[in-house]
Structures are given as C-alpha cells and as structure tokens.
C-alpha cells in the first residue's frame, strides 16, 4: 500500500473515532431531556421562573455560541485557510440577510414570526439529518426524498408538537414577540391556535412521522436495524418530550443540549485542532478550542440583542419581553446561519446521497 493510501486509511479511522465520540456525547446529552420528562410527569410543571433558565443560559452556553463559529466552518470543512475574503463573505451575509429580516420584523411582525417558525423547522430539521447520517450512520435515509421527509419530521417536532400540546403558552410567546413591534397585531395569529387547526396539524404531522419511520424501517437492512432504532427512539422520545414538558423549558433545553450541541460537535469535527482532540477523547481540549473560537462573535450577538432592544418601539422591561427580544435576535441571526449550514451540508454531501 502506498504511503498516501495508508495515511488516508488512518485518516478515515481517526474521523470515525471522532464521530463515535460525537455520537456518544450527543446521545448522552439527549438523555438529559428524558430527565425533564420524568421530572415533569412525576413532579408537575416546574415554576414558570425556572422554565426560563435554560433559554437564559443559552445566551452564553451552547445556544448563541453554536452559530458564532460560522465565519470559520466553511473554509475548515473545505480544508482551505480562513482568509479575509471568506470572512468578508460571511460578514456580508450576516449584515445583508440579518438587517433585511430585522427590518421585516418592524414592517410585518406577524409574517416575520411565521417565517421564524418555518426557518427554525427547516434549520433544526437539517441539523438532525446531518447528525442522523454522520453520528448514527442512518443508512435507512439513503435517498434525498427520505432525508427531506426526515428534515420535516425532526424540525416539526419542536415547532409543531408544542403547538398541539400547549397552545396557550405558544400563543403567549408568539404574542410577546409580535407585541414588541405592534401590540395590536398578535390577534392575527389567533386562528392558528384554534382546535380544528391543531387537530389538522396533529393528523397531518402524525402521518408524516409514521410515513418517515415506516419507510425507514422498510429500507433498514434486516441485519442492522440499529440506526433506524435510534432514529425511531429519538423521534418518539422527542414527541413525548414536547408533549409533556412546558414549551419555554422544553425548547430552552432542546436548543442547548440537542441542536446546538450537535452542531458544535459538527464544527469540532471539521476543525483540525478540536477534531484531533475529539478523536483522542480529549473533550476538554476540544471545548476550550471551541470556546475561544466562538467567544468574539457570541459577544457580537449580544450587541445585536442590545441594538434591537434599543430600536423596538416599547422598551422591554419584563422577563417575557426580554425572552421575546432574545428570540427576535436569534431569528435575525439564524437566517444567515442557515445559509452557512446549508453550504456546510453541500460540502459534506448531506443532500446528495
Ligand atoms: C421559545 C418558544 C417558542 C419558539 C422558539 C423558537 C422559534 C426558537 C428558535 C431558535 C432558533 C432558530 C435557534 C437557532 O438554532 C415557541 C415555539 C413559540 C413556543 C413557546 C416557546
Ligand atoms: Fe443552528
């Protein structure tokens, strides 16, 4: 075997070792959500003040930082150096898309909110499709159509199950976001929370979940149903989770310990320094490297939070208002983040089986 071929094989083994560590970390953190289910079922809903804690923590822990390495991931995934040009591209993307969408919140807050839910559905779904392929080895998602269906299912879990199970809290949070810009406008969303709409969503989305898991079961090799079983267990687990844990708490924990953690592991795997550390199981080294990379633009994200807070017509004063302001900040930052992650998907062949 040539020296190149030996190096490639060693590379492949190392990458597989890194993905195994990522799989273990993400599954371990996922079981935190199980704890939240058990606590809620046994002890009832935690007090409202406590429900805000994970979202508040996500400002500095996992949540906001997960997108703060967007300026580094594309060149790293390509094996290219980070250049002034690549930085300017991501900077320009954030400036253009972010400010256009921020303007949209002022001009048409109801439409901006609906777009936020749709973008989150797509983005959280795309993140899970990557994790299913790279961490779980989901060979049952072998066609692009099956991956698209998995995207809708995985993204629909956090965005649609709370709508079906907790319409009042959903409407309340929607009202605070829209109300930051136009207190009278939130009434336009009311029909979305009516029982017939929720029933239709439950039937439609439930059918998609059944279709996705059913087709996957048919495609999974009979000798290796493991990845399908993980997919099915995660899907059912997340349905139970979002149907029982109150949504502000449920989404706060999910954002940190599911979506952001999985994406952070993905960014570590494309980074030579953090990736090598993960392969050796040196998770602390990988975390320190990530924290250093993400710190400056996490602070940048906080500036966006302050800027939007100063610009909204009514100064946010209550905890729900601050949460609304934070979610609008996330919305504005997420749109360009989705473009970066979609580029990453392309480089990593997530949509080209
Ligand atoms: C908190 C919360 C909601 C919305 C949260 C959203 C939409 C979060 C999006 C986060 C993103 C896009 C993070 C980036 O990866 C709902 C569903 C209205 C229900 C009530 C609680
Ligand atoms: Fe993300």
Question: Can you summarize this structure?
Answer:
The chain is mainly alpha-helical. The chain has helices spanning 3-43, 48-51, 53-57, 63-66, 70-78, 84-107, 109-134, 144-165, 167-181, 195-219, 226-244, 247-269, 272-279, 283-311, 319-347. It comes from Halopiger aswanensis.
Kindly describe this structure.
The chain is mainly alpha-helical and 353 residues long. The protein has one domain (3-347). The chain is built from 15 helices and no strands. The protein has helices at 3-43, 48-51, 53-57, 63-66, 70-78, 84-107, 109-134, 144-165, 167-181, 195-219, 226-244, 247-269, 272-279, 283-311, 319-347. Helix 6 crosses helix 15 (319-347). The longest helix has 41 residues, at 3-43. The mean pLDDT is 94. It binds retinal and fe (ii) ion. Fe (ii) ion (FE2) is lined by residues 66-67, 123, 127, 259, 263, 337.
Helix content: over 70%
By DSSP (H or I, 4+ residues per run), the number of helices equals 15
Mean pLDDT, to the nearest integer, reads: 94
Instruction: State the domain count.
Output: 1
Query: What is the CA-CA span between the terminal residues?
Result: 29 Å
Q: Name the overall outline.
A: globular
Order of helices and strands: HHHHHHHHHHHHHHH
Question: How many β-strand stretches?
Answer: 0
**Distinct small molecules bound, one entry per kind:** retinal, fe (ii) ion
β content, as a range?
Answer: under 5%
The description of the largest β-sheet is: none
């Amino acid at each position: 075997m040539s020296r190149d071929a030996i190096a490639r094989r060693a590379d492949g083994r190392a990458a597989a070792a890194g993905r195994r560590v990522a799989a273990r970390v993400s599954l371990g953190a996922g079981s935190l959500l199980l704890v939240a289910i058990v606590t809620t079922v046994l002890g009832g809903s935690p007090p409202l003040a406590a429900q805000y804690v994970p979202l508040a923590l996500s400002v500095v822990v996992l949540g906001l930082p997960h997108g703060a390495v967007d300026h580094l991931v594309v060149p790293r995934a390509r094996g290219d150096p980070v250049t002034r040009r690549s930085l300017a591209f991501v900077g320009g993307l954030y400036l253009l898309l972010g400010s256009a969408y921020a303007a949209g919140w002022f001009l048409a807050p109801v439409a901006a909110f609906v777009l936020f839910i749709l973008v989150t559905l797509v983005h959280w779904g795309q993140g899970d499709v990557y994790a299913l392929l790279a961490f779980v080895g989901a060979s049952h998602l072998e066609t692009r159509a099956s991956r698209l269906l998995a995207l809708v299912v995985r993204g629909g879990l956090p965005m649609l199950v709370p709508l079906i199970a907790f319409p009042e809290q959903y409407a309340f949070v929607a009202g605070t976001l829209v109300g930051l810009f136009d207190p009278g406008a939130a009434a336009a969303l009311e029909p979305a929370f009516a029982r017939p709409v929720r029933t239709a969503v439950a039937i439609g989305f439930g059918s998609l979940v059944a279709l996705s898991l059913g087709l996957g079961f048919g495609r999974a090799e009979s000798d290796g149903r493991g990845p399908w079983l993980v997919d099915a267990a995660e899907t059912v687990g997340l349905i139970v989770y979002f149907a029982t844990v109150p949504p502000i708490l449920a989404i706060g924990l999910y954002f940190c310990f599911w979506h952001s953690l999985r994406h952070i592991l993905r960014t570590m795997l494309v980074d030579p320094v953090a990736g090598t550390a993960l392969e050796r199981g040196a998770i602390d080294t990988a975390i320190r490297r990530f924290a250093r990379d993400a710190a400056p633009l996490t602070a940048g994200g906080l500036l966006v939070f302050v800027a939007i807070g100063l610009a909204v017509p009514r100064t946010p004063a209550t905890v729900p208002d601050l949460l609304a302001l934070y979610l609008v900040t996330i919305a504005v930052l997420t749109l360009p983040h989705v473009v970066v992650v979609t580029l990453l998907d392309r480089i990593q062949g997530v949509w080209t089986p």
